[in-house]
Every structure is written in structure tokens, then in C-alpha cells.
Design a protein that fits this description.
This protein has 436 residues and is α/β, with parallel strands linked by helices. 18% of the residues lie in helices and 27% in strands.
């Protein structure tokens, strides 16, 4: 039986091309991470989006280490959040200025969030901020001027005088979205707020997970372990809780005795989810999973894995681009939160950080071991704690202790396996895994 992903409702679900994406060779000048409203629908770039946020207090404070906020972003994405909520920091006593270091810290957080295809929700006022009217007026104007050209975030204005303060913010920063109890682009509500779910503008719900995520797709959950567990359960594909028996008849007797598991039976998508809206984006032909059309998104494993050996064969045409995601999150950019072992139609080209066999954008392969474009290649990918080893066609192209790498040491240690849709033909077969 082919596994069908739940139908994506335009304007309500962030498309899988965004939520589980990876490598990109060319970055256009258009800001594909900008948040806007079009006819009451939240958009990221030119695609409908939803804001699924978890609070991460303090990560925009001056002096917060990169490691701290990167781990907060990764933890949120792991369970399906595509943004985090934190507060602006560094206002002067009267609110008329922002510490330069605080502005740089917030902008760095924005940069690193968008690189992961994640958004931010900034509370303009922290819980400890002054409630004096003059301070609040000055602070709103100061924040608006500082972030008027940063539409990758939603800015929250709450408390006394919110309607007037929101108008003042929007006058100075018309390009960015504001969530407020009154006058905002998004109406700020919580579980105790009576409201008409069909009213405009759309809502940003603070508190517990909304009961009706179709009517209230945009929410901010508190910084609590339960929030992560609840969101992960709410966004899980139905197959994740259904029985699944791998068809190990496709394995050799030796492989079965050694503890290998067949992730692909050569005939069906059992054990996999096609994450995109186009369920015809991937096809199975003669024991091969093949990219067929745009919009299929990632082919994602039913289960998460931590330590394992993964073997598979792959094939790609000249100039093509794909990859194998390992320890990938439920949402956002798998190649920056988990890892992507890159696949390119780049036979004969010198290796770099985006070549076949690279750990995408981070670590070039030790050598070029791919076969001519259009021929079958084999990967053996071993993940054991912080160590990753990649063997391509019998030659070691990665052998790395990620704790020695400034970025890879922060990546998830457990996650999904995914086959990337990069808008061109790619093929995979003989996919099997041996948990360690």
C-alpha cells in the first residue's frame, strides 16, 4: 500500500519543500524567508506558511553563545516547530535606544534562523520591561527603526496601550508583521480569549496547542518539555504509530543474520512518507524509487534513528542535485539541523563542500569517488555517536569526529532518514539499515 501524506490545505500548512529541505546551489536575490500576509494568508516568500513556534527565552540576549541558540533552534525543528519565540534585549532605561550589541545579537539570530528555513517571533517587551507609558512608546519606535527591514520575524506588542503602540510600530516599519491584541497584522490571543475563529486578521495563539489547528494554524507554545512532546505527537504522520513489518526477504541471508533491516521492499512505499503535496512526485519502477515530478518533497523514513549503518545505491544525471538526509528533523532545513550526504551529477569536477560525498556546506569529501554521471553508485553511511563515516563505491570519503567541527557538533544526534527532492531526476534502490 502506498503511504499518502495528509492533504495540505493552502495557507495552513507550510509546504514540505520548505519544512524538510536541504541543499541549494544557487541563492536568488529575492528574500524567500520574508513573512507577509496575502488576503489573510501568512506567506513565507511566495509559499503559504504556518507559524508553529516554541518559546526560547533569552536566546537573543547579548553574549548568548551561538551554540546555545543553535541548539534551541534544532530542538524546536526536531519536533516540527518552524520558528522560535524570544524577546528583544538591550533597551536603554527610557527605551529611546537599543544597545548596538543587542541589535547585532538579534540580527545574528535572524540570520542563523533563516539559514535553517526557520522564522522568529520577537516579543518587543520582555517580562521584566518597564510598564511606564513613555518607555513603552520609545521602545516600540526604537525597535521599529532597528528592524524595519527584517521581515523574517513577527513582532509581538502586548500589554497596555497595545493598539496605539502597534500603529506607531507599523508606521515606522510597514514591511514587517506585528501580532497584537488590537490593530496587528495577526490578532494575539490566548486560551482564555473569546474570539471568532473566522474573523480577520489571522490569529497568533499563545499557550497550549490549539484544539483546532486548521482554524488556528499559528501558535506559540511555552518553553516546557510537554510542548515539545505535544507538538511532535500532533505533527506525526499516522504511519509512525501504526505497525510496520519490514520485508526482509529482499535481503541476503547473511544480511538478515547480521541484523540488517530492509527500509525499501522494492515494490511499495511501506515504511516511508512522501512529504510533499504531490503524491505523484516519486514513483517506484523495477525496484527503484525515482523522482518523477516537482512537489513530491522528501521521501522520509517512518522511524527516527540515532546510531546505524545505512546502505543504498543511487544514480543521478549530469548536473543533477539530490542527497541523503540523516538524523533529520521533522521540520525546517534538514541539511543544517541534521546532516545531508550530498549527491551531485558532478563527475570529473574537483571536490568541494557541495560535491558528491560532502557533508553539505560543511565538509568536503576526502576524494572524488563517484562514477560517471548516470551510473549506479553505492553509499555506506555510518553514524555512531559523534562519528560519521561515509564510504562511496568502496572508498572512504568522510571519516570525522563531529565534536571537532564547530557546526556539525551541534547537529541532531537522532532523526529521520530522507531522500531529497531537488527538482530533478534521482534514483535510489537497495536501501537497508543496521541499527548499532
Amino acid at each position: 500500500m502506498r503511504l499518502i501524506h495528509p492533504v495540505l490545505i493552502p495557507g495552513l500548512l507550510l509546504l514540505a519543500a520548505i519544512t524538510f529541505s536541504g541543499c541549494s546551489k544557487v541563492e536568488g536575490k529575492k528574500n524567500n524567508e520574508a513573512l507577509t500576509l496575502q488576503n489573510g494568508v501568512l506567506m513565507r516568500g511566495d509559499k503559504p506558511a504556518e507559524a508553529r513556534c516554541i518559546e526560547a527565552p533569552g536566546i537573543a540576549k547579548v553574549g548568548t553563545p551561538y551554540e546555545t541558540y543553535a541548539m534551541a533552534l534544532h530542538r524546536a525543528a526536531d519536533v516540527g516547530a518552524n520558528c522560535v519565540c524570544t524577546e528583544l534585549d538591550g533597551f536603554s532605561l527610557d527605551g529611546s535606544s537599543l544597545d548596538e550589541g543587542a541589535v547585532k545579537a538579534a540580527r545574528a539570530l535572524l540570520r542563523d534562523a533563516t539559514q535553517r528555513h526557520m522564522a522568529l517571533v520577537f516579543r518587543v517587551f520582555s517580562a521584566s520591561a518597564s510598564t511606564e507609558a513613555a518607555f513603552r512608546t520609545n521602545a516600540v519606535k526604537t525597535a521599529a527603526k532597528a528592524f524595519a527591514e527584517r521581515p523574517e520575524a513577527i513582532y509581538v506588542i502586548e500589554g497596555s496601550g497595545a493598539k496605539q503602540l502597534t500603529a506607531q510600530f507599523k508606521e515606522l516599519a510597514p514591511k514587517v508583521l506585528v501580532a497584537s491584541p488590537a490593530g496587528g497584522d495577526l490578532a494575539l490571543i490566548d486560551s482564555s480569549t473569546p474570539h471568532d475563529a473566522s474573523a480577520k486578521p489571522p490569529f497568533l495563539h499563545f499557550g497550549s496547542l490549539p484544539m483546532d489547528r486548521v482554524a488556528q494554524p499559528h501558535f506559540v507554545l511555552p518553553d516546557a518539555d510537554r510542548s515539545y512532546a505535544d507538538l511532535d505527537a500532533a505533527l506525526a504522520d499516522p504511519i509512525e504509530s501504526q505497525p510496520w513489518t519490514p520485508d526482509n526477504s529482499v535481503l541476503s541471508e547473511e544480511e538478515r543474520n547480521e541484523g540488517w533491516i530492509a527500509l525499501f521492499d522494492g515494490k511499495t512505499f511501506n515504511g516511508w512518507t512522501i512529504t510533499g503535496a504531490n503524491q505523484n512526485g516519486w514513483k517506484i519502477n523495477d525496484g527503484v524509487i525515482e523522482w518523477a515530478e516537482d512537489g513530491g518533497g522528501v521521501v522520509r523514513s517512518r522511524d527516527r534513528y540515532d546510531n546505524f549503518i545505512l546502505r543504498l545505491d543511487w544514480k543521478i544525471d549530469a548536473g543533477g542535485n539530490s542527497g541523503v538526509f540523516v538524523r533529520a528533523p521533522r521540520a525546517s532545513r534538514a541539511s543544517r539541523i541534521g546532516m545531508e550526504v550530498q549527491i551531485e551529477g558532478d563527475y570529473g569536477e574537483p571536490p568541494d563542500t557541495t560535491s558528491t560525498g560532502s557533508l553539505y556546506s560543511q565538509q568536503p569529501p576526502l576524494l572524488a569517488a563517484q562514477k560517471p554521471n548516470g551510473e549506479w553508485n553505492s553509499y555506506e553511511i555510518t553514524l555512531d555517536g559523534p562519528r560519521i563515516k561515509v564510504v562511496l563505491n568502496g572508498q572512504v570519503v568522510q571519516d570525522l569526529d563531529t565534536t571537532t567541527h564547530p557546526d556539525l557538533k551541534l547537529r541532531l544526534r537522532r532523526g529521520f532518514i530522507g531522500l531529497q527532492d531537488h527538482h530533478n531526476h534521482a534514483a535510489f534502490r537497495n536501501i537497508r539499515i543496521k541499527p548499532l
